[in-house]
Amino acid sequence: MSDWRGIPREEIPWFPAIDTEKCTGCRECIDICKNGVLAFDESSRKSLVAQPYNCVVECRTCARLCPAEAISFPDAVEFTDFIKKKLHNKEN
Ligand code: SF4
Ligand code: SF4
Question: Is the CB of residue 38 below 6 angstroms from any atom belonging to ligand 2?
Fold first, then answer.
């Protein structure tokens, strides 16, 4: 398991969420992500999150490029707060 700033990656809830109501299945997010986080679901004809912990922490590239605004990430302020607490607990 990989670490991010000394925290096991799988303890960090940073990965995209796909709103399947909005997703048109255009595959742009799948093509843009080089980490294999996203994949095409043949049954629904939409994107799905296949490898969440391969997502680069604090990257939002796919969300910025999604034409349907179907991709979201955790709230930035809440996420920063979460990480600060994690780092504090690690150091104490
Ligand atoms: S870029 Fe957006 S609309 Fe296109 S497949 Fe990905 S989530 Fe769906
Ligand atoms: S945020 Fe970046 S690393 Fe994560 S799934 Fe999107 S493009 Fe890939």
Answer: yes
